[in-house]
Structures are given as C-alpha cells and as structure tokens.
UniProtKB/TrEMBL annotation:
Annotated protein name in UniProt: L-threonine O-3-phosphate decarboxylase
Matches recorded under InterPro entries: Aminotransferase_I/II_large (IPR004839), PyrdxlP-dep_Trfase (IPR015424), PyrdxlP-dep_Trfase_major (IPR015421), PyrdxlP-dep_Trfase_small (IPR015422)
Highest taxon in the source lineage: Archaea
Cofactor(s) essential for the protein: pyridoxal 5'-phosphate
Length: 334
C-alpha cells in the first residue's frame, strides 16, 4: 500500500451500534460510572455560534487549580486518546523507542507505532513508557509509592506516562498528578467518571516545555465549546464522586461473590470493572451473554483469549447480569 496500514484498536461501548434499534442491550463492555454526579448539560447558544478559545485559558485554570499546578502544566484534547496521540507524535520518532506492558489499553501501542518508533524490550530502555493505573483491563491499582520508586532509575531523557483515566472511581489518594517532575506525564479523563463519553474530553499534566510542544502538535479547537462548558460543570461536582465510589464498591463486592460462586475467577479490581477468567474461549462466552441481551468485553484483543471484562453498573442492571451469569453457568455445567 502507498499509505500506512494499521488495524484500529478495539474498544467497548458498541452495544447500540451492534444491535441496532431492534434489541435493548445492556452494555457491560464500557466502563462508565453508573452513579454519576448530575451535570448541567444544557447547550448555551454561544457554544454553537462561536469558536472555542484555542488556548483554553479558563478551562486550564480550573484544571490546574484542581491539581495544584499552573495552567502551563495542562494540555487538553478530544478524549484521552487524542492526548496519547499528541504525546507520542511530540516525543517519538523513528530514532526513539517506547515501552508498553502486555495486556493493556491498545491505543498506547498503536499511537507509538504510528510515529515510526520501535518497541523497547524493557521499560528502562525506552524513551516513552506507559502505565495504566488502575490497569485496564484488570482494574488493579498500583500504590502511589510504587510509581514514585521508578524515578530512582528513570533517566532525564525518558518520559513515564501514567494513565489515570479510572483513578477517580478507584482511589484518588493514589494519584501522582500532584508530582512535578519533567520525566512524568499524567493522563486524565473525565468522561468515564462523569458518564459523559459522548463529549470526548481528556487532558494531560506535564512539564511546561513538553506541554508547550504538545500544544503546537495538537490541532486547533480540539475541544468544542459545548464540551468545555460541560467539563467546567464537572469540575464543580468532583466531591459527588465519593458517592459514586461507595456505590460502585458495594455492587462490585456483590458481583465478585457471584462470579466466584459459579466457579469463575476475577481480578481484585480497585476500579469500576472486573476482569473475569472463564477458562473457555472469550468469543464463545461473549456470544452467550449477547444472546441474552448483555454485551460484555471480549478480552482477546488484550491478548487474553479466555477472559471477559465487565463494568459495574446499577443494582438493577447488575441483578440482570447475575441472572444471566447463573443461567450460562448452569448450561455450561449441564
């Protein structure tokens, strides 16, 4: 081919597009907060009739205040994936290397590879390395101190990207977003925590020199005026996420007990989703759930051929999942 040929990364959250309008599918494949704070989602007229401020001065000031830093430490994007692409194209080229752990979010690898960079054998050998914390798909959270310990060996010309997309629904006290180090870049997203994936918003926190270069690489007006308005509303409701975390933990405990009872095992997740080991082909298990109007995440795209991932949803929705899980388990063991 004349052009680069890469396969797009696989993501969850496609129930509506897979099933169409004929079926009502419960989507357990996308890790969205089932108990989100209530936001102002009205559309002001000027959100449609004016260009956004491409410097996003007000937005960056609000984000910076939340994280105890300055606006020049902040970059924004149309979802965290765009921030990942911008970071990779700013830092990497064909003469540099990256490191991505096995069985993790596919966009790290794809974004790095698109720059022409080569994959390093170890994290210590790479120009740019990624850690998802809490991990996706396991939901397991690394303690803050374990992240900090890496800086004893990270060189001055290396960058460690910590993706904290789910940490607000896990344990925010373990975030490293308060650490100022030129070797650290922290990736954040509001769309999962506040259940607004359709607006597409992510941001990054890093060294001002890196951020300045990323802002040049970022296309203009990547965050639209409506998204900016909703995000500003979200930052005023951060305290309400405490209720979300409490409810998610209660429902997660209930789901884990049922999953264990039917003979499957699951990750000790801190986040709002669980990785389930089924000991059977994940595509087969995914199909069984889909026949019962539930979409779960087939984790073969993570390199986990017998695992599925499920989001924690509301009590009523989780009741339905448990009912179908027990039905499937009975069929498998009959």
């Amino acid at each position: 081919m004349r052009y680069k040929s890469e396969l797009r990364a696989v993501h969850g959250g496609r129930a509506k597009y897979i099933a169409g309008n004929e079926r009502e599918i419960l989507d357990f494949s996308a890790n969205i907060n089932p108990y989100p704070p209530k936001l102002d989602l009205s559309i002001p007229e000027d959100a449609l009739t004016r260009y956004p401020d491409d410097e996003y001065l007000v937005l960056k000031e609000v984000i910076a205040r939340h994280h105890g830093c300055k606006p020049e430490h902040i970059t924004v994007g149309n979802g965290s994936v765009e921030v990942i692409r911008t970071l990779c194209h700013t830092v990497l080229d064909q003469n540099r290397t990256y490191f991505v752990p096995d069985h993790t979010f596919a966009e790290y690898e794809l974004s790095a590879r698109l720059t022409g960079a080569q994959k390093a054998k170890t994290e210590k050998e790479s120009t740019l390395s990624f850690i998802c914390n809490p991990d996706n798909p396991t939901g397991v959270l690394l303690p803050k101190q374990e992240i900090i310990s890496r800086f004893s060996w990270i060189r001055s010309d290396q960058i460690l990207c910590i993706d904290e997309a789910f940490i607000d629904l896990s344990d925010p006290s373990q975030s490293v977003s308060d650490i100022r180090d030129p070797r650290l870049f922290v990736l954040r997203s509001l769309t999962k925590s506040f259940a607004i994936p359709g607006i597409r918003f992510g941001y990054g926190i890093g060294d001002p020199d890196l951020i300045a270069s990323m802002e040049v690489m970022r296309p203009p007006w990547t965050v639209n005026a409506f998204a900016e308005k909703v995000v500003l509303s979200a930052f005023s409701k951060y305290h309400d996420l405490e209720y979300s975390r409490k409810m998610i933990e209660e429902e997660k405990t209930r789901l884990m007990e049922t999953i264990t009872t039917v003979g499957w095992s699951c990750s000790k997740a801190s986040a709002n989703y669980l990785l389930i080991e089924t000991d059977r082909p994940s595509g087969y298990i995914t199909d069984l759930f889909f026949k019962n109007d539930i979409l779960v995440r087939d984790c073969s795209s993570f390199g986990l051929s017998t695992s599925i991932r499920i989001a924690i949803r509301t009590k009523e929705e989780n009741d339905r999942f448990i009912e179908v899980l027990e039905k499937i388990s009975a069929c498998l063991h009959s």
